[in-house]
């Protein structure tokens, strides 16, 4: 009796909210199946098990529903891989026509040849904390927009309430309303929105503080100068698993804090820091570095090093360099289970 060797297959999933396009290729690149099913773990698992029973890799891109589907399919024992959408888009863009069907086939092809960059999928708890941080960050941005709107309104009438960066700005706007009651119907709703946003931001901050206080790793990371609970939690949720990085020095490029380099033949070009996949994290690290350079009173080797860079290359480069160093220090503390150490001369890195 002739027993055929099972065909090794590779699957690409192009996910949208309602449905997912699926493509199955064999090891030679021959298309065995193409179709679409609802974006539901049971439906996806069923079609893969029926159409690709000897599947070696299943590829899907990073996206809003990816963590949920990735965990669900992994839980069903399927070899699903989450790949970096930015990396995949460069490969998929080479196709003449961009359609969901073509993207699914392109992802299957990437799985077949092994040309992909695997992305980390956060654990449910990490995703929860990250969502809290993101929600707070978005509310802060909304509050900033409201403040700028109020400032623009009063300026257009020749009235000035000072800088929106000061905490007294809303009070100064209230004083303008008292002195100019005709502006009450214009400015009072904006003030009410500002107050509501401030209250809800405080709710998120209280929850995040409690999480940081209960987490021993976060408490150790917060011993680093300039690092508070927000930066510590943002860093931990950005990294998720510190063991993913074989060296702490890899954190700089990962967080978009390393200079861009182009080298080919006789050309060797470098410029400022590159694209930031996590803008919130890079912003927090830059702010923390600014605190180290300008507000930290105690002497530290970290601050002394940063000030030398400042004197040599200017504040912006120094702040980026210190931000990069902070990421390295936090990762090392997290991995080693230690705390920031202080020298005899003061608090030092």
From TrEMBL:
InterPro entries reported for this sequence: Transp_IS110-like_N, Transpos_IS110, Transposase_20
Coiled coil, from the record: none
GO molecular function terms noted in the UniProt entry: DNA binding; transposase activity
Superkingdom as given in the UniProt entry: Bacteria
Single GO BP term: DNA transposition
Positions of the Transposase IS110-like N-terminal domain: 11-156
Domain annotation Transposase IS116/IS110/IS902 C-terminal: ranges: 219-299
Name the UniProt record assigns to this protein: Transposase
Organism of origin: Paracoccus chinensis
Top-level taxonomy: Bacteria, Pseudomonadati, Pseudomonadota, Alphaproteobacteria, Rhodobacterales
């Amino acid at each position: 009796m002739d027993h055929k060797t099972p065909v090794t297959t590779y699957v690409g999933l192009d996910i949208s909210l309602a449905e997912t396009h699926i493509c199955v290729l064999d090891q030679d690149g021959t298309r065995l199946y193409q179709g679409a099913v609802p974006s539901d773990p049971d439906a996806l698992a069923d079609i893969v098990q029926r159409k690709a029973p000897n599947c070696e890799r299943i590829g899907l891109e990073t996206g809003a529903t990816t963590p949920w589907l990735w965990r669900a399919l992994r839980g069903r024992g399927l070899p699903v891989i989450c790949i970096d959408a930015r990396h995949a888009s460069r490969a998929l863009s080479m196709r003449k026509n961009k359609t969901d069907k073509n993207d699914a086939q392109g992802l299957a092809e990437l799985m077949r040849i092994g040309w992909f960059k695997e992305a980390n999928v956060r654990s449910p708890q990490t995703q929860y904390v990250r969502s809290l941080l993101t929600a707070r960050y978005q509310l802060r941005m909304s509050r900033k927009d409201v403040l700028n709107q109020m400032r623009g309104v009063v300026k257009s009438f020749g009235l000035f309430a000072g800088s929106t960066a000061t905490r007294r700005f809303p009070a100064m706007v209230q004083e303008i309303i008292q002195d100019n009651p005709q502006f009450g119907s214009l400015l009072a709703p904006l003030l009410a929105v500002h107050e509501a946003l401030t209250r809800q931001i405080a709710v998120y901050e209280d929850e995040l503080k409690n999480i940081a206080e209960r987490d021993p790793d976060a408490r150790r990371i917060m011993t680093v100068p300039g690092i508070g609970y927000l930066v510590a939690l943002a860093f931990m949720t950005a990294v998720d698993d510190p063991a993913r990085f074989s060296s702490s020095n890899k954190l700089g490029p990962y967080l978009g804090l390393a200079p861009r380099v182009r080298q080919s033949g006789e050309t060797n070009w470098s410029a400022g820091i590159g694209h930031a996949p996590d803008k919130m994290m890079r912003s927090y690290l830059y702010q923390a570095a600014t605190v180290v350079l300008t507000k930290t009173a105690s002497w530290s080797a970290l601050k002394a090093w940063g000030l030398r860079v400042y004197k040599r290359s200017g504040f912006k480069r120094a702040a980026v360099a210190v931000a990069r160093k902070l990421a390295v220090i936090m990762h090392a503390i997290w991995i080693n289970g230690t705390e920031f150490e202080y020298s005899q001369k003061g608090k030092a890195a």
